[in-house]
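Mods, move this if it's the wrong board.
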Amino acid sequence: QVQLVESGGGLVQPGESLRLSCAASGFTFSAFYMNWYRQPPGKERELVATISGGGRFTNYADSVKGRFTISRDNVKNTLNLQMNSLKPEDTAVYYCNAKIGRDYWGQGTQVTVSS
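Not the wrong board. Structure tokens:
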């Protein structure tokens, strides 16, 4: 079965960096676009970044362009999100997502940006 397991969240100060990872299993990872979503406290879940199966094409929410980088390792079946210049408004639970007939989600990882 499809499994997505995020890691790498934590508490950082504004301006610092974090790298999130998502370990994927149970499907042909390289065949599917993958996404990172986030859900800030009290708000709806929003799409942060998308990457094509081969990794050639990426897309970002305007709020993170130039600061976040999505990448993938199709040998290790891992999805990554490098987050630089973090801001308090980046505070959220971050989710790995695969759309394989339906949405599959990981359990989420908390990112808190606070001084």
